[in-house]
Amino acid sequence: MEANGGGGGLEDGGDGHALANGGGGHALANGALANGEGHALANGVANGGGQAAAMEEAGGAVGNGGLQVMGVPNGVVPAQAVAALTPDALYQFFLRLPAQEIARCRMVCSLWRDIINTDAFRGEHHRYPYKPPMPLVFFQDPGFENLHAVDVRDIVPWPVMRFPNHQHEVFRIHASFAGILLLSYGDRLYACNPCTRRWAHLPPLHVHNHIIGFYATGIDDDDEHGNLFRCQVLYHDRREPNCEYWIFELGAAAQPPWSIGRPSLHEDVHLDLVLANGIAPSYTIPPVCIHVFLLWLPQAAWANSDILMFDTDALSFLLIPPPTIQVDGEDFPVGVGGQLLEIAGHLAMAVFSPERLDVWVRCNIDNLWSRRYRIPLHQDDAFTGGEVAVARDRTDLVQGPSILHAVQHGTFLSRHTIEESLLLHPAILPMQDTDAVDDDPPFFRNQ
User: Fold this and answer.
1) What is the pTM of this model?
2) What is the pLDDT of residues 249-270, one digit of tens each?
């Protein structure tokens, strides 16, 4: 998705604002209490939590009015109850908060900051399972474009970044993976994590090529907390109908881009023809990433209904059949268009019709498709392809129009999502916000 880019982040020594300098509100105003699990703050308060050595510093910091938190009586936890929480209870509670709220929490006191500012906490927060991917939306204000992420559980928008709206500079989101966005602004290409405000300059691969994928290829063996060691950008040149595919690698093992030709797992003349005609750039049709695979919906130029899959380990392509239904004893694809998504680690396909949304899921064991959900649509739902916000399960399937209506006038939905991450990824994102010079990068500035 594109538009015609600052925010605050969570970084050691950072300013502690949320993903952008919007934010406001109480320190934990929108913090989820993780379904009442274990050591969440609600339980700590209910049990009177704590030891004799209460956290007076924290209690004083939140003030006499207490701490406003969703999920507790009257929405307010008394300051004395907050001060009585043990470090272990706080650690468990922080794990359940969105990154934006954690950025505010670290400003409360040195104790909270010391709990949050550790690689162990960043890694465990990254792996914590409650966080669904958040659809990215744009909206305009005078002279600027704003990028927000929408929490699909309560349709709350969170600022991600803000960038100047220049007619001669086009802002595009090329990909999103593990909390890292691949962005271009004019002829400049960047990788950045909005939560930590770390970033990197990349070669302008997008200028004469089509970027089609972005994925991780390994974990740093010396890093026990899950920081990525290597990331790769998959792209092809624009020599249709004779496209050649290339890979550029970020990180400590970075090297010049190298060609992989048009590789396939099996000799397949039709697949070679598909690859020769190219894949739509990921800023228009992003692939879905499941385990080590990138997958694309069928595209008009392919003249078939198969799903294209790229194995990022084997560096080769394969066509796989879509879900089908039988009509008079013959198999037919269930629909044209729709959207690929991930549900519980499985490939899923959302298929739209005027009356309903069907969600088909492919089993990883036998590779067979089954219809998992059938959701009736109302006449005013105005569902079209690409307007479903993705999901861990059925409760997170959200219509694009409902997101736009809930956020604000003038908003449009990108086809990308982001999974927030506090990991620093120093090997692939070496630059910090303080390294920005002359509005480069443009998206961390409040101009």
Assistant:
1) 0.76
2) 987 556 789 999 998 877 788 8
**Residue 109 resides in a domain:** yes
Bridge partners for 319 per DSSP: 308
**Structural domain that includes position 23:** 8-130
- Pairing verdict, β 144-151 and 134-141: antiparallel
Query: Distance from first CA to last CA of the chain, Å, rounded?
Result: 23
Question: Which pLDDT band, with edges at 50, 70 and 90, does 2 fall under?
Answer: low
Q: Are residues 145 and 90 in the same domain?
A: no
Q: Mean pLDDT: which of 307-311, 357-361, 365-369, 417-421 is highest? A: 307-311
Tell the burial category of 398 from Cβ atoms under 10 Å away from its Cβ (0-12, 13-18, 19+). buried
| Residue 212 and residue 116 share a domain | no
* Same-domain pairing of 196 and 316: yes
